[in-house]
């Protein structure tokens, strides 16, 4: 990694001032579990790191007076797993955190960092840039695309969003709060991620001199929820496909559902088709299977990842069944 | 059989041999006291990094190191200069070194090299696309396969099988610390499987006498066949060190370790096999191909293990690629040949509607010398895997989305102990040392030496000091081919018996009997069979006065202490989720012989480790090469998938010991148990889902693709 300057501000205002107005000059450092590996691979070469570890206002997990759950951006995965409120009200968030199998990453990695971690695309990590360009065209469509996108993949981005938390947080209707030079703003998490169209853009709605400060999750009000991730290995590995489901039910009938898939597209991928297939139904194996099928109906697999269509369908089905089964 | 002076003690008289003995360097390794090459630091040391080619095939046209040399203390050493043709991505163009490792890394980034890019080939599985890179070798024939296939009663199966290219993934990467002494001697601390042979490697590359080189490997973290040579990076580091007048440390970083420090060649084949209706295999025909990297590479031993098939025709094509050098990988070519053979025969058994256990029992005779062992081991493996109860005809549908299946494979290996010399020293103070230029790859060499000496001298294992890993000691062979245990144990036995004889001679007068009436047991020298007439080990050694006993032990040598040739059978019990294509290992059973087992615990450990490595290559591992750039895409432990503790299921190891095995003497074990897992797991998956996944690793993508074409789903 290149030499860099290290700053450890104690307030968000100070932090924002230390950040440059263009990407690449400076980077925000949370747990560093993703950023430092990018820097060691020379895929990111910031001149200054602005650490968030000294800012008390970004820490902690608590219930708000209005019933929302507030997760500080620098709350660790470990804190989330250990939180009694989260365990009681949002069991699917704990499941998602357990998906990150390494105790070391759980204890250093932050929830904010998980949402903002960069794609794991091996062309990107291997130095070909976020859009994997080589001689003016993407290496992905004709290359080793077995782990790449099956939806939202008309280019130029083909990577998948790697976060295990984003799908379930979106399904729960979470918002994020962002702090920048002109103060704070709130964004629906469902609108926060986006597909970059050039190398100078990021995969989320954040400016280079803004920081994510907290995640606000509405009270679940008795909703049923689950995540399901398909992984090749039990040991530390990335999901091949994932789904998060939140069901609002009346008796056995689904009033409304939220279905969001992970690892299928450059952004967490909500499926209104699957949601429609569930509304008004009583969950059964076949209803869940139909919803899974609907979720991937529009998939456009690349040369080597057709199997992911099946995996996304199964992940969706199993997440629905798990949500319905878990009271 | 008349007994021979150095023979192993008889079954009832073994104190340590055959027991479960923990490795003697375990506490050092787990506490960090054990020092590896990376831990060696010398005054004024520089850290070197490789600047490799980003292209798989190219010519170097210019090199500019000026920016790199602006960083503090940076030195540069050209390895492959302007004009050189490069044959794989990662290939060393130059080395940079600096007093701080991170500076060396940054300097490497600042080097600018231009290339003329040439066409490359990094995928060999599709033979129709390799063009003139493929070189067919001569057809080999035994009997008349064509006639056997045209027998109207023959049951014939044809299929395609293969295994992908994988990397060695040694826990400790390749590398060395090199230092020149003022009088022109080179000292190298090196992670190597070949301590005694390494000085010649350096001497040849540097043009200095072999006597001027000393190589040390006190501990190392695995080699698996990839660490026999000094390698270009090693000898170039030595030249670099001489030029700058400072010691240099260079360990490959994980990416280059995976890219160029070792890969197991892929092997693919179209196979045709025939049997009589009763299941007797009659004919084999194969068209195989593989790559050895820039050079074509070796031929798999086909048909594997059951190689007495009477009618055989085989052809092989060697493909030159730009993937990087291939190296021997734990039982070179055998795991791949096992997949090509045992999977084809398992498919033939399915076509014959035969239980593979019966089918392989019936055909065990084709294993020649190994036949009886295979039969016994098949029986044992069937028992330990609950085969009778759990096996079902292929693809029987079970309710739900999880299908369970069983599969088996068998294997063979040589493993005759290598040449080895060492010294057994008994000192007047009672201390004992065995010293030899051997190396402990992590397999337990030290422990085996200590227990052999302790057994022979009637001592406890802790009483023996073992010094190895230094080329200044008497030479031992390289640790390859499962030859080390046979070599060092027989060497130690012979040396310790000779040393014991000298001690008996010194003690005999005081006990009033001739030396040949003495024995060494339980820390005493006593008159045979009478513990009352004894002196303690310490008192006995005190009689040596000022002089230590030094006896040289050797292998080969008198008496039959070792032999060659082992067999093994493994059964895999798997569950396949037919909706996701995920394969889960429920249980692996390994039944293995290796003659006389010296340390049951480290022997079993070899099998456990082999099963884990085997599960990993059967289900996950592949060196993934990008066609457009010619580079490896997964050169790290995140994308290069290795099985973890949650992926391996229950492992059951059974060592065949006792009469019929013990009297064969010591035979090596490091490699054989890693041969069968790929074929056994592939056969188990075929049994579970009713279709064959032709190539390993068996990924969810391949399982789903196969199920789409047929099987239980
Ligand atoms: C082998 C491996 C397996 C993994 N498996 C999974 C998995 O299955 N699922 C999963 O979800 N994750 C997985 N992870 C990722 C892990 O969860 C993330 O690395 C971790 O959560 C990132 O948190 P961090 O605090 O360390 O982030 P950092 O590395 O500090 O930051 C990550 C990125 O976010 C930016 N950033 C961080 N916080 C802020 C903020 N508050 N404001 C603005 N920018 C910010 C940084 O600038 C950087 O670009 C895995 C990681 C590894 C290495």
Question: Can you describe what's shown?
Answer:
The complex is a heterodimer of chains A (327) and B (713). In chain A, strand 4 and strand 5 form a beta hairpin. Chain A has 13 helices and 14 strands. Chain A has helices spanning 12-18, 35-40, 77-82, 84-89, 91-99, 103-108, 111-116, 122-128, 165-171, 189-192, 272-278, 285-295, 307-325, and strands spanning 5-7, 26-29, 48-51, 61-63, 69-72, 133-134, 137-138, 175-180, 183-188, 211-217, 224-231, 239-250, 253-262, 269-270. Chain A has a domain at 224-325: CO dehydrogenase flavoprotein, C-terminal domain (Enolase-like, domain 1, 2-Layer Sandwich). In chain A, the strands form 4 sheets. Chain A has a 5-stranded antiparallel beta sheet. Chain A starts with a strand and ends with a helix. In chain A, helix 11 (272-278) packs antiparallel against helix 12 and helix 12 (285-295) crosses helix 13. Chain A has 327 residues and is α+β, with helices and mostly antiparallel strands. Chain B is built from 17 helices and 30 strands. The relative contact order of chain B is 0.13. Chain B folds into 3 domains: 11-34 and 417-555, Aldehyde Oxidoreductase, domain 4 (2-Layer Sandwich), CATH 3.30.365.10; 37-119 and 174-251, Alpha-Beta Complex (Aldehyde Oxidoreductase, domain 3), CATH 3.90.1170; 343-415 and 563-709, Aldehyde Oxidoreductase, domain 4 (2-Layer Sandwich). Chain B has a 7-stranded mixed beta sheet, with helices on both faces. By secondary structure, chain B is α+β, with helices and mostly antiparallel strands. Chain B is 27% helix and 26% strand. In chain B, strand 23 (518-521) and strand 24 form a beta hairpin. The chains are: A alpha+beta (327), B alpha+beta (713). The structure holds flavin-adenine dinucleotide (FAD). Flavin-adenine dinucleotide (FAD) binds at residues 27-35, 52, 73, 99-100, 105, 108-110, 112-114, 116-118, 162-165, 211-212, 236, 238-239 of chain A.
């Amino acid at each position: 990694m290149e030499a860099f300057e290290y700053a450890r501000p104690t307030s968000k205002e100070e932090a924002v001032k230390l950040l440059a107005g263009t990407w690449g000059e400076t980077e925000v450092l949370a747990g560093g579990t993703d950023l430092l590996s990018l820097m060691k691979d020379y895929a990111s070469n910031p001149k200054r790191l602005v650490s968030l570890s000294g800012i008390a206002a970004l820490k902690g997990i608590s219930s708000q007076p209005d019933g929302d759950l507030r997760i500080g951006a620098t709350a660790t995965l470990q804190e989330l797993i250990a939180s009694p409120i989260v365990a009681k009200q949002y069991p699917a968030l704990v499941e998602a955190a357990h998906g990150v199998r390494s105790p070391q990453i759980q204890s250093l990695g932050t929830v904010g960092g998980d949402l903002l971690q960069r794609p794991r695309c091996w062309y990107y990590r291997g130095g070909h840039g976020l859009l994997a360009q080589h001689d003016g065209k993407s290496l992905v469509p004709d290359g080793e695309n077995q782990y790449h996108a099956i939806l939202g993949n008309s280019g130029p981005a083909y990577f998948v969003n790697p976060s295990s938390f984003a799908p379930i947080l979106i399904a729960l209707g979470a918002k994020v709060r962002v702090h920048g030079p002109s103060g704070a703003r709130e964004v629906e998490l469902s609108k926060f991620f986006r597909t970059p169209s050039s190398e100078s853009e990021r995969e989320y709605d954040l400016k280079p001199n803004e920081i994510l400060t907290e995640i606000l999750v509405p009270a679940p009000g008795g909703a049923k929820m689950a995540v399901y991730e398909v992984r090749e290995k039990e040991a530390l590995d990335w999901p091949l496909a994932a789904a998060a489901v939140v069901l609002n039910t009346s008796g056995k009938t689904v009033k409304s559902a939220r279905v969001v898939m992970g690892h299928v597209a450059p952004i967490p991928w909500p499926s209104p088709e699957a949601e429609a297939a569930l509304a008004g139904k009583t969950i059964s194996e076949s209803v869940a299977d139909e919803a899974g099928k609907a979720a991937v109906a529009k998939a456009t697999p690349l040369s080597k990842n057709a199997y992911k269509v099946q995996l996304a369908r199964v992940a969706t089905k199993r997440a629905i069944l798990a949500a319905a089964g878990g009271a | 059989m008349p007994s021979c002076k150095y023979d192993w003690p008889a079954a009832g008289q073994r104190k340590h041999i055959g027991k479960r003995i923990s490795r003697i360097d375990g506490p050092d390794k787990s506490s960090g006291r054990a020092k590896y090459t990376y831990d060696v630091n010398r005054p004024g040391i520089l850290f070197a990094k490789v600047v490799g080619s980003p292209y798989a095939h190219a010519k170097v046209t210019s090199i500019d190191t000026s920016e790199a040399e602006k960083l503090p203390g940076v030195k540069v050493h050209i390895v492959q200069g302007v004009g050189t043709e490069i044959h794989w991505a990662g290939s060393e163009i130059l080395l940079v070194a600096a007093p701080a490792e991170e500076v060396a890394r940054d300097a490497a980034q600042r080097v600018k090299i231009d290339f003329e890019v040439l066409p490359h080939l990094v995928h060999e599985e599709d033979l129709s696309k390799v063009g003139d890179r493929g070189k067919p070798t001569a057809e080999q024939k035994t009997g008349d396969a064509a006639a056997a296939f045209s027998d109207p009663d023959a049951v014939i199966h044809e299929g395609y099988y293969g295994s992908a290219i994988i990397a060695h993934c040694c826990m400790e990467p390749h590398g060395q610390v090199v230092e020149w002494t003022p009088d022109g001697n080179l000292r190298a601390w090196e992670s190597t499987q070949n301590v005694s042979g390494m000085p010649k490697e350096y001497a040849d590359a540097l043009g200095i006498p072999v006597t001027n080189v000393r190589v040390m490997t006190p501990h190392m973290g695995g080699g698996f066949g990839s660490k026999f040579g000094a390698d270009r990076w090693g000898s170039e580091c030595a030249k670099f060190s001489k030029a700058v007048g400072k010691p240099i440390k260079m360990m490959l970083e994980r990416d280059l370790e995976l890219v160029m420090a070792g890969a197991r060649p892929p092997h693919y084949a179209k196979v045709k096999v025939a049997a009589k209706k009763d299941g007797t295999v009659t004919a084999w025909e194969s068209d195989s191909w593989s790559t050895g990297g820039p050079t074509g590479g070796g031929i798999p031993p086909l048909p594997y293990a059951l190689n007495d098939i009477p009618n055989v025709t085989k052809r092989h094509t060697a493909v030159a690629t730009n993937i990087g050098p291939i190296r021997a990988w734990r039982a070179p070519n055998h795991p791949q040949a096992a997949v090509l053979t045992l999977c084809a025969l398992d498919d033939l058994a399915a076509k014959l509607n035969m239980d593979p256990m019966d089918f392989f029992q019936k055909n065990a005779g084709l294993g020649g010398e190994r036949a009886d062992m295979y039969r016994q081991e098949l029986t044992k493996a069937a028992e330990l895997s609950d085969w009778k109860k759990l096996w079902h005809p292929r693809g029987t549908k079970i309710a739900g989305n999880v299908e369970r299946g069983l599969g088996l494979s068998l294997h063979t290996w040589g493993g005759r102990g290598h040449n080895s010399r060492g010294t057994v020293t008994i000192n007047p103070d009672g201390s004992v040392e065995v010293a030899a230029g051997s190396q402990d790859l992590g397999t337990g060499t030290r422990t085996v030496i200590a227990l052999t000496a302790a057994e022979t001298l009637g001592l406890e294992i802790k009483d023996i000091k073992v010094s190895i890993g230094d080329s200044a000691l008497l030479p031992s062979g390289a640790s390859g081919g499962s030859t080390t245990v046979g070599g060092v144990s027989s060497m130690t036995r012979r040396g310790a018996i000779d040393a014991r004889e000298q001690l008996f001679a010194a003690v005999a007068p005081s006990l009033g009997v001739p030396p040949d009436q003495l024995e060494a047991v339980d820390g005493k020298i006593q008159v045979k069979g009478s513990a009352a007439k004894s002196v303690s080990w310490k008192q006995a050694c005190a009689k040596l006065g000022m002089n230590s006993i030094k006896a040289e032990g050797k292998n080969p040598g008198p008496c039959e202490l070792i032999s060659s040739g082992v067999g093994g059978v493994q059964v895999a019990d798997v569950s396949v989720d037919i909706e996701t294509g995920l394969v889960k290992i429920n249980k692996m059973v390994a039944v293995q012989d290796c003659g006389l087992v010296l340390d049951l615990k480290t022997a079993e450990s070899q099998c456990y480790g082999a099963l884990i490595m085997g599960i990993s290559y059967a289900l996950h591992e592949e060196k993934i090469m990008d066609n457009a750039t010619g580079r490896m895409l997964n050169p790290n432990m995140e994308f290069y998938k290795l099985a973890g503790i949650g992926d391996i299921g229950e492992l059951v190891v059974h060592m065949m010991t006792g009469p019929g095995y013990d009297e064969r003497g010591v035979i090596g074990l490091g490699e054989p148990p890693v041969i069968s897992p790929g074929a056994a797991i592939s056969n188990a998956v075929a049994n579970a889902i009713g279709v064959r996944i032709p190539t390993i690793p068996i990924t969810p993508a391949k399982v789903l693709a196969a199920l789409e074409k047929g099987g239980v789903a």
